[in-house]
Design goal:
single chain; mainly beta; Jelly Rolls; seven-stranded antiparallel sheet; 53 strands; 3% helix; globular; binds beta-D-fructofuranose
């Protein structure tokens, strides 16, 4: 059977009198027939022949040629199978096609196989909800394979969302196809400290491979060897997901290559469109490129930590060590979105000013570096420390297949070494992660809480170890998802009455007892913070006993569009347990160290405000503020602070606090509302009821609106005290 489209092309060629030339296109398949011809289908996804466009239950399929196409939606997304071409000879420099559907190179893909091995792969564009069923042009450069016998295979092994693939019009050609991506390579001599990669926010993910070019008369260390020798690799030879800019970049991602001074590096990119300037624009420099404005960017929070470049999520490895607070974090150095998980690293001497030091854990053969914790091994149970110099030990998840728990250590808080016998905890299930470790003094052992998803049940597994290396399962508790934390706190400061708190990513928690083996909850699961955009918090380990505070930092989901960074952290929060009539409850308050950021202040004298009264606070130009207020709202009154476009409203009848539309109970305490508001460029944190009500709220303050306004409605309110401070930047 001569496929229709081919017939038409041949017919046209004959009509206009073209002689067949070597460079004429060869149609491999146009899927215009009633069946697949010599192509062989397995499974049920591909039906018995080409689809005539959209299949039942599918969004409109467009962008294919003619009437028919391969569409593996014959049984919706649940169908699976393969469709394999007869063998053919590669006779042109390119193979082009139209492709759409799911984007998974393993489960929804078109493969080219030579000698039974996959040599090229293409997928559709969709890997998240939404998207489009439009097929687009794509292709491969195959000049290196001309003369070889090949087979094409279309696979659909995916059953979830976008679990199908659409393909049409596969043609051999000597014309470079539209949309073709080809690999590129260049060499760069290291003369300066950084190699700057051009990044486009949300750009296509490219694989960048960096290697040393052997040169005669020079010593060559394999990059991994060089890293292992000195601790803390300063970059990764293969970076899988770089949001690489093909044209003008949004920002530059610096890679520290100083270790390779004088050497020649080869930089390869797996896929580049024609005309891409990604490789040619890569620059070495003595500074990260484009940092002139660092920490002054319009949406940079001024007293909340955020990384210089790229994406962050969870805080990790929080520990006090050798006089410094260490804050590690889930970091994507090469993109504005989640991906490529490294551990970023920052330190502070006062919990206020942070110095970012560069990434310490790079993805490796065990997978990307997911969340985890850190402890100081005072008794040197691990053997990583030296007398008088205990090691700081990191426990983290390597999220490969299997997903395992690993260990790294440092004896100076600057250089980090991965343990050579990793992993230390094998996989329980694929959904196990986020080890949080503590020293349990009564039983003289290490205790790890680990999130483990079992049969769709969220559990926290409790493990123990004598040395941080050998772990044994002790018990489990149901009901918590991701990023557990576990610590003991006195109730109302009474050290004779301590309770254990088990909490996790959502900030919900249970209070109970712990006998060294098993946690016994004494409360139901309780709500933690009452706002939005606060997730995966953890608390510092090893704060000296004479200080004794339990200090938490959460991932503050402050989305900063158009910036070279995205997301951030909350301020450090002191956690306490307090007795209430309902039982013990956690309270959150900003750490007192933040007071040293206070600049210009305004004190409003005690007064009673009536509805319609003028705003008592004089406007002052500042985009960072702290408000401390004590108010006795009269019956039926509503007290509103307007701060740079955000509304914070206290409703006395409901005894409810609303921050930008998000309401939470905030009962008056002895008739009073004690309110603390921290307002930064990209987020607000509001505290009431002595910390029983904590409302974090990502919020982009209006750029030209510096207003701060107080008003009442519905009844009067007595302002007992009110102070407003402008806060200084932690970055100066
Ligand atoms: C929580 C989380 C963790 C995981 C990490 C990966 O936000 O999903 O469970 O370790 O992020 O970045």
């Amino acid at each position: 059977m001569l496929p229709l489209k081919t017939a038409a092309v041949l017919c046209l060629l004959t009509l206009v009198g073209f002689a067949a030339r070597a460079s004429d296109d060869i149609v491999i398949a146009d899927f215009e027939g009633g069946d697949y011809g010599q192509w062989k289908a397995t499974g049920d996804a591909f039906g018995t022949g080409p689809a005539q466009g959209t299949l039942p239950g599918q969004m409109a399929v467009t962008g294919f040629a003619g009437h028919g196409l391969v569409n593996s939606f014959h049984h919706g997304d649940t169908g699976v199978g393969t469709l394999t071409s007869p063998a053919f000879k590669i006779e042109r420099n390119y193979i082009r096609f139209l492709i759409g559907g799911g984007k998974n190179p393993e489960t929804t893909a078109l493969h080219l196989l030579v000698d039974g091995k996959v040599v090229r792969t293409a997928t559709g564009p969709n890997n998240q909800a939404g998207g489009s069923e439009q097929l687009g042009p794509d292709g491969w450069l195959v000049s290196d394979l001309v003369g070889k016998t090949a087979v094409l295979q279309i696979v659909d092994q995916a059953t979830g969302g976008w679990g199908h693939i659409n393909v049409d019009d596969i043609v051999q050609s000597d014309q470079r196809p539209k949309g073709l991506l080809s690999p590129g390579k260049r060499t760069i001599r290291v003369t300066q400290r950084f190699l700057n990669l051009p990044i486009k926010d949300g750009g296509a993910h490219r694989k960048v491979t960096i290697s040393l070019v052997p040169e005669s008369g020079k010593d060559h260390l394999d990059l991994q060897q060089a890293s292992a020798l000195k601790g803390t690799p300063d970059f990764l030879p293969v970076i899988n997901d770089v949001e690489l800019a093909d044209g003008t970049p949004d920002w530059w991602a610096p890679i520290d290559v100083s270790r390779y001074q004088g050497q020649l590096l080869s930089v390869e990119v797996d896929k580049l469109p024609e005309g891409s300037t990604a490789l040619s624009s890569m620059e070495s420099g003595d500074k990260p490129k484009g940092q002139e404005n660092l920490y002054q960017e319009s949406l940079r929070n001024q007293f909340h930590f955020s990384p210089q470049r790229g994406w962050n999520n969870d805080p990790n490895g929080m520990v006090f060590y050798r006089g410094e607070y260490h804050l590690f974090f889930q970091h994507n150095p090469y993109g504005w979105n989640w991906g490529n998980m490294h551990w970023g690293h920052a330190v502070s001497r006062d919990l206020v000013r942070w110095t970012e030091l560069g990434d310490v854990l790079y993805p490796d053969k065990f997978g990307p570096m997911f969340s985890g914790s850190a402890v100081v091994d005072w008794a040197n149970t691990s053997g990583f420390g030296k007398p008088g110099n205990p090691a700081q030990v990191l426990l983290y998840t390597a999220a490969g297949d299997p997903t395992v728990q690993c260990l790294a250590y440092s004896t100076d808080g600057r250089h980090y070494f991965k343990y050579d016998k990793n992993p230390v905890v094998p996989q329980f299930t694929g959904g196990n992660r986020d080890p949080k470790v503590l020293w349990h003094e009564p039983s003289k052992k290490w205790v790890m809480t680990l999130f483990v998803e079992t049969n769709h049940l969220n559990t926290i597994h409790f493990l123990s170890s004598p040395n941080l290396k050998d772990w044994t399962l002790m018990s489990t508790v149901d009901g918590f998802f991701e990023c557990p934390d576990f610590f003991e706190l006195p109730i109302d400061g009474n050290s004779a009455n301590k309770k254990w708190v088990l909490t996790a990513a959502s900030s919900e928690y249970m209070v109970g007892t712990f006998d060294g083996t098993r946690f016994t909850p004494e409360t139901a699961k309780l709500k933690g913070h009452l706002g939005r955009g606060f997730y995966a918090a953890q608390t510092f380990s090893d704060i000296p006993a004479k200080d004794g505070r339990r200090i938490q930092i959460g991932w503050f989901q402050t989305e900063t569009k158009g910036m070279a960074f995205n997301q951030g952290m909350t301020v450090p929060l002191e956690l306490k347990l307090t007795a209430t009539t309902d039982g013990p409850r956690l309270t959150w308050t900003p750490v007192r160290e933040l007071e040293k950021l206070r600049g210009k202040s305004q004190k409003i004298s005690a007064r009673t405000l009536q509805p319609g009264d003028a705003n008592p606070i004089a406007a002052s130009e500042s985009d960072t503020r702290e408000i401390r207020a004590e108010i006795e709202p009269g019956a039926g009154s509503e007290v509103t602070f307007n701060i740079r476009g955000a509304a914070i409203v206290y409703n006395a009848s409901k005894q409810e606090l609303t921050v930008n539309g998000q309401s939470a109970p905030a009962p008056l305490r002895a008739g009073k509302l004690r309110l603390t508001v921290l307002s930064d460029r990209a987020g607000l944190e509001v505290f009431a009821g002595d910390g029983l009500t904590y409302i974090p709220m990502p919020y982009i303050s209006k750029a030209d609106d510096h207003r701060l306004e107080l008003k009442v409605a519905g009844g009067s309110a007595k302002i007992v005290s009110l102070k407003v401070y402008n806060l200084n930047s932690i970055w100066k």
